[in-house]
Design a protein that fits this description.
Elements: H1 6-22, H2 26-40, H3 44-60, H4 104-107, H5 127-137, E1 142-145, H6 155-170, E2 174-179, H7 189-201, E3 208-211, H8 216-228, E4 232-235, H9 239-258, H10 281-292, E5 302-305, E6 320-324, E7 338-340, H11 342-352, E8 357-361, H12 373-380, E9 387-391, H13 403-411, H14 426-432, H15 436-446, H16 457-471, E10 474-475, E11 477-478, E12 481-486, E13 493-499, E14 509-515, E15 517-521, E16 541-544, E17 549-557, E18 563-571, E19 583-584, E20 592-599, H17 622-626, E21 643-651, H18 653-657, E22 666-669, E23 673-677, E24 687-692, H19 698-706
Parallel strand pairs: 1-2, 2-3, 8-9, 10-22, 12-18, 16-19, 20-24
Antiparallel strand pairs: 4-5, 5-6, 6-7, 11-21, 12-15, 13-14, 16-17, 17-18, 20-21, 22-23, 23-24
Helix pairs in contact: 1-2, 1-3, 2-3, 6-15, 11-12, 15-16
Length: 708
Amino acid sequence: MVEVSMSAGKKAKASFEKVAKKKPDPMGLALGKKAQAALVQKDYASAKELFERAQAICEASVNKAMKTKRAKPSGSQEAEIKVAPANPKDDMANEVNLPQPGSDGHVIAKSKINLPRGAYNYAINTSSRLAEHLTATGGKWQTRFPPEPNGYLHIGHAKAMHFDFGVAEKYGGNTYLRFDDTNPAAEKQEYIDSILSSVEWLGYKPFKVTYSSDYFVKLHELAVQLIKNGQAYVCHQTKTETAVSRQVLQGFQLHCARNNLSRHETPLPAGAESPYRHRSVEENLRLFEEMSKGVWEEGSCCLRMKGDLRSDITSMWDLAAYRIKFAEHPRSLDVHCIYPTYDYAHCLVDSLEQITHSLCTLEFETRQAPNGPYYWLLDALDMYKPITWEFARCNITYNVLSKRKLNVLVSQGHVNGWDDPRLLTLEGLRRRGYTPTALNRFCQELGVTRNDNIQHLERLEGCVREELEDEVDRRFAVLDPLPIIISNHPGGSLPVECPLHPKFPERGMRTLNFTQTVYIERDDFRESDDKSFYGMAPGKTVRLLFGYNITCVRVNKDDAGEIIFIEATYDETSLGTKPPKGTLHWAGLDFTHGEVRIYEKLFSVEIPGKRVADANTITGTQEEATGDDQNCDWLTQLNPNSLTVYQNALLEPAISKLTATWSTPRFQLQRLGYFTLDRDSTFHAPVLNRIVTLKESKELTFMRKSKK
């Protein structure tokens, strides 16, 4: 049999997709799904053959893809790519076909095309266990969102929540919020509180809030049962010794593959097994009890599940079930000194909570394979088996979403805490001024897919920008003030009426005071004018937005040559007339002093951690998104200009009054972007965060046009 490489399988897929895009024959697309399943299971020969057959069917088809035109709203503005429904959960689960509770797809909770020789499908529910489950749930859908409280949630968790809660809500079911609190060394009450707050902020209402630690006693009982069944043992191998055993097993796998040998009929080489694997049940029970009483030192031993060392799934190679940790737990404090691992607790708690659909990201796919450890453990303990389904993670350009990397940024002081507005943590986005509706809309637009992908940051920004465009009022602020003295001003203040929103005059007006001294941005003045410059210059007339025309008559400098102030005259007849070439925002003497924080991209490259030569080339793979295989120090790619602080900005007086509100005020500073008040604000010293710029980037504009 000719061996087919992964590259050949992917080339066949690309060729099929190119044809199917133009001629999407239903039979061809169905065969393409089977081919994709084979590709995911690394059966490259079958995948290549199926993709080629699917391509041939599509090529011969008379079906043609329908061209769709994007509708335009009334008015001059064009619509964005999509408009999310009022409730983004309404259309959830349209992209995926999940089995109904109690259906054949629930009896066989997970299937796999072409299981390897000797492999067993552990994901089959017995009639009695499934009947017990359906009785407990009443046939309802039950999902869970299981964050580990070792950090703050980020935008990827928002996508997972949108799917987990959305699926259950669509079918009238329930969603558990379950804290996977099995690693006390990394967990804090601070993280638990933040997660609860973020879930509520996004608008989700869990059926129940539970913790893996709620089941510690039951999990311990099941571990004892596993030992009595001869399916778990206490192992004293060191990390180094375990790594050597795994290398031996990897060599065994390679030997069998190269020589076309059945792994399950070929003897294991020496050193593949732990020397403690064949301890007696009695000895393992004694040692496990000693572990739970603190007799053994941390790291000296662990309880391992006796999986399948011949499996092609490495997570079947005797994963740890319990380890010793002398750390205080956020909830149970120091009651326990051994803690279950994720691989042990996750599936068991899913079963104990009667979850119908356990939805996870793709990194758990092999663990949740029908011949993987998730179902192996449930089968070994004769427990109910949930349906599992995996989807692609959310990756966004110019950011990292790995909790490990986020923790590095926070702990090493590269950002100002987990809620730093430059981070895509939910607390960071909330502090920056993003709305829950914008984030939910972004997740809705992403949909649910099994294909790894990297989303452009501008797509996320576009969701909040479009929402704020019509919703928020307009205000003035000058970030870097340059004084302008109006030499012919009559004194006092002249009222200037400004609309709260130019598109919606019914919202009313606000009055600003045109005083003898006004301020413009320093960048809006140049000593040398040119045709492309719309700001002020010597002898040039500009319009103060909604106000009067002013003309520069003199530039005053200090001994160092720095401009101190400008002298100008104003045209008292110009109010409401056609403006000249330049129109500038401005501030009067009654404006409030405040601080304005301008946020830019956190990293200087699209894919942090990727080699510099390729860092701005998106190929859309998970490995490139995380950068773990790129041999590049991702911290060196931080953008040194990701935060600019203007400490002496001048703000419209009405902004200070917003500090007294309980809500999160958002507004547009005209010509500057959309802003919100930071929690550091006081009435006398407001602090503003820029949410997003006024216009999307040229890159995203091009992307939108290319999709027409």
